[in-house]
Design a protein that fits this description.
The chain has five helices and no strands. The protein is mostly helical.
Length: 87
């Protein structure tokens, strides 16, 4: 690999990795809006195990920090159009 190609790859990685991490975190809201109805009940229970597995790191962070957990639930409720209940 030439120096120029290497530097382009490193620059791409430096932009892509943070962007993909933010996209991953922000994607939980629209997914919750798709699989939950306005009462918070599951519309598509057949997808729940895949969704829980994919978002397990976010759930873990939400369980470890009260602030992160409240922000996490508020974001999901805002995307779903329901009222958030805080602990």
């Amino acid at each position: 690999m030439s120096e120029n190609t290497e530097s382009k790859f490193i620059r791409l990685a430096c932009y892509a990795v943070p962007f993909l991490l933010v996209a991953y975190v922000m994607s939980i809201g629209p997914v919750a809006a798709l699989v939950l109805d306005s009462k918070g009940d599951l519309e598509y229970p057949q997808y729940m195990s895949q969704i829980e597995s994919f978002y397990a790191p976010l759930e873990w962070c939400a369980d470890k920090s009260e602030y992160v957990g409240n922000a996490f639930r508020a974001y999901i409720h805002a995307c779903n159009g329901t009222v958030a209940e805080y602990r």
